[in-house]
Amino acid sequence: MGTTVATNALLERKGEPTLLATTRGFRDVLRIAYQNRPRLFDRHIVLPEMLYSEVLEADERMGAHGKVVQELDQAALRLGLSAAYDRGLRSVAIVFLHGYRYSEHEQQAAALAKDIGFTQISTSNQTSPLMKMVSRGDTTVVDAYLSPILRRYVDQLAQQLPGVPLLFMQSSGGLVDAQAFQGKDAILSGPAGGIVGMARTAEAAFAHGDGLEGKVRVIGFDMGGTSTDVSHYAGELEREFDTQVAGVRLRAPMLHIHTVAAGGGSLLQFDGSRFRVGPQSAGADPGPACYRRGGPLTVTDANLQLGKLQAAYFPAVFGPEGNQTLDAQVVEQGFAHLAQLSNKTPEEVAEGFVHIAVQQMAHAVQKISVARGYDVTGYTLQCFGGAGGQHACAVADALGMSKILIHPMAGVLSAYGMGLASQSLIKEQAIEQTLEASVWPQLQATLTHLSLQAQATLRSHITDGGDLQTHERVHLRYAGSDSPLVVAMGSIAEVKAAFEAAYLRRFAFVMPNKSLVVEAVSVEVILAGEQTPEPMLPMAPLRAMPPHTLTRMYLHGAWQDSVLVRREDMQAGDHVMGPAVVVERHATTVIEPGWQAKLTALNHLVLLRISPRMAQVAAGTSVDPIQLEVFNNLFMNIAEQMGLQLQNTAHSVNIKERLDFSCAIFNQQGELIANAPHMPVHLGSMGESIKTIIRDNAGRMQAGDVYVLNDPYHGGTHLPDVTVITPVYLGDALEPDFYVGSRGHHADIGGVSPGSMPPFSTTIDEEGVQIQNFKLVEKGVLREAPMLACCKVGPTPVATLRKISLT
Asked: Could you read off the pLDDT of 463-503 as tens digits, one per residue?
């Protein structure tokens, strides 16, 4: 089973009062944290509330290489722990400097806390044995903060179900015995069930075939009332080992899920010029306007207005007394009002809102697929959640996908998935060694130790025995970078090859001459759950259409006659041509024109596009508020993905954490089309830099060329802000179709002093190297030597020259 107890306690800050015990001098390390600025334009920064109630500094210090700088003062620490215990604290998180690797002092402190009587003791070397004190410390505090709440919930449940073995879903996608369920592993307990359900049912569907053949490759599309969760599955559950939830950094394995605030309850708004969907939601109460509780117009109401939802097939559970059907009249009145304001018909307004919502959800899919190097056009879109089927075809069309899978339990797939999940346990250990032959025995020994430890722990919670599967993985990154990728353990050559293939797919380039660092290793031990085979339905004789009635849907700007089919009337082998609506107890599926639905022998609905999708043309000179928002979202999504790639591959703290960079798209004339929400001072003048490059290289640009400048007299700001400009050619075009620009602050551009222009400067040369219209890449080849030479020019050249990479 899954639970949101830990998630809610974290979001509402209602966990166990916790004491943080840390090395003297580091009491504020979790408050100071990193230099990340997630909300760049907030004038009033509201820092998240810290989870710990008090801090106790211990007199101790371990060196980075294991040397004891200062022995732990156990007497003083005992006094501090006892005083905190007397004040009512019963939970303690112990986070010492370098404790992830050299844990003697943390173990001694834990023994003292246990002797005093603390009931929850979380040490960083056990909770998150990885480097980075801030995220390791946050993870340990989260565990101490949430585990007591979770323990009380589990104990109460066990009392109500005596003798029943309880297994809980972890954020990593595996089940664990109730007594071993920890707070740090419970954050995504609920959503994880949906991802597991998606993966297991997809495996069954592809094994059976019948429209889905080849390697399992699916995009999970879980649309509920408030938000949409998207995920990627290609034979293996994808996990993140370093993430952030509710303002807290966590270094614990979690399924990779991206959430966007676009669900059935997302609010529809018109501000006089643009249509907007979300991020606010009507929630469950009052809910959408059609729920008869005075709620606002939402995406659900738009689908009702368009005929994609059929009020007659909803149960009578709405209204103040919970005994009425959906209210179509109030929905019509709401869209009629918006139609008057926007000079459109009510149906055009509703369809426009749905179109915008579809684009937002498609962009969410791109963030976990296209932005990470996956071509979604060869994937199947697997829809689940109460509202997923209503938008399946539209989202697939927006992504260029041609296959959709809808399971009969799609409306409750998260719960269904928990019954299909396996028991598992993941162990990690920091390594921080350069990948070379001399460290290979250490890696293998560490993996063996972790495997034996994980197997013993998992077997201690298993009553029926069973075969265990062990998966060993290596976390690799380029030296100097901060973006590790996880690959399967093998020989050194196999590990390197797997890393380079993954890096190339995600970032579009590799650095073969750069050394690799093994950041950590991890082991996953799995006890496969009972795989209940899905029942096979007998194939019915070919017939024209299952029993149906006629209805009307507003599609592509016009009302169209459509068929309405009840899923329980369908037999295996039945085909339904779009436009159509398939209704069932848990969900509604809309089959758009050009799509065909087939019910397979596994009772799965497989939707296939059988005719080319409609060509889309750009908005004309008469600006349409719907098209304006759609194209705004498209261009913004591209610029934001540029920023993510830059941030993930950068070495500089200025770029990775301070976010001192900007990315934007420009037209053929160098005029700004769209920019991500980055630094305004960069974006205001970047267009002049683009125009300079266009003017100075007219007739000489070629595909694969990249230019760089920082000249303040031609659109630059100050010299440390270096701009990289890339002309983009579509197809066989002879001239660039558009340009993309990226500007980032570099720590060393030369100069008489570090940083920007010193106050006593009299010439620009005193700030550093001035770069004007320099070709950084020619026909796809980095001009490294000329670039290094350029950095040496002038009276105050760059002081710390390093090898250049495309980051």
From this structure: 566 678 889 999 998 887 777 888 999 889 899 999 988 88
- Nearest CA-CA partner of 724 in 773, 658, 657: 773
Contact 120, 91 (CB under 8 A): yes
The answer to whether the predicted template modeling score (pTM) of the entire model surpasses 0.85 is no
For 239-261, b/e burial (b = at least 16 CB within 10 A) is bbbbbebebbbbbbbbbbbbebb
Q: Which residues pair with 61 in a beta bridge?
A: 70
Provide the H-helix boundaries in 70-132: 74-86, 104-116, 124-127
Alpha helices in 265-317 (DSSP H): 299-305
Q: Determine the pLDDT at residue 29.
A: 92
What's the pLDDT band for 807 if we cut at 50, 70, 90? very low
> CA 791 to CA 785: how far, in whole Å?
10
The pLDDT confidence band at residue 619, using thresholds 50, 70 and 90, is very low
| C-alpha to C-alpha distances, 40 to 35, 79, 259, nearest whole angstrom | 12, 43, 20
Pair 113, 75: CB distance under 8 Å: no
* Cα dihedral 384, 387, 390, 393 in deg (nearest 10): -40
Element (DSSP H or E) covering residue 5: helix 5-12
pLDDT at 182: 85
**Distance from the Cα of residue 439 to its chain's centroid:** 33
Separation of CA 582 from chain center:
31
Q: Tell me whether residue 159 is exposed, middle or buried, using C-beta atoms within 10 angstroms of its C-beta: 0 to 12, 13 to 18, 19 or more.
A: exposed
Encode burial over 597-620: b for 16+ CB neighbours within 10 A, e otherwise. bbbbbbbbbbbbbeeebeeeeeee
What is d(CA 274, CA 636) in angstroms, rounded to the nearest whole number? Answer: 15
Alpha helices (H) along 379-431? 388-399, 413-420
Q: Where are the alpha helices (DSSP H) in 161-232?
A: 189-208
Q: Which two tokens stand for residue 551?
A: 């209805």
Q: Hey, what amino acid is at 56?
A: L
Contacts of 129 (CB under 8 A, 6+ apart): 100, 101, 103, 428, 429, 430
- The answer to whether 546 and 598 are in contact (CB under 8 A) is no
Lowest-confidence pick of 233-242, 374-383, 630-639:
630-639
| Contact predicate 592/605, CB 8 Å | no
Contacts 24+ apart (CB under 8 A), 790-793: 791/750, 793/769
Check: CB of residue 270 under 8 Å from CB of residue 341: yes
Instruction: Give pLDDT tens digits for 276-303.
Output: 887 888 877 788 999 998 899 999 999 9
- Rounded to an integer, what is the distance from CA 665 to the centroid of its chain? 24
Six-digit token string for 384: 């689940």
What are the tokens at 424? Answer: 């598992």
Q: For residue 483, what are its two tokens? A: 């973006």
- 278: number of Cβ within 10 Å: 22
Q: What's the CA gap between 666 and 672, in Å, rounded?
A: 5
Q: What share of the chain is helix, strand, coil (3-state, %, to 5)?
A: 35, 25, 40
Answer whether 660's CB lies under 8 Å from 648's CB.
Answer: no
DSSP character at residue 385: S
Give the pLDDT score at 694: 93
Q: Tell me: the pLDDT tens digits for 629-646?
A: 667 767 877 888 788 778
For residue 564, the cross-strand partners are: 549, 581
- The Cβ of residue 86 has, within 10 Å, a number of other Cβ atoms equal to 9
The residue whose two tokens read 């368009």 is 306
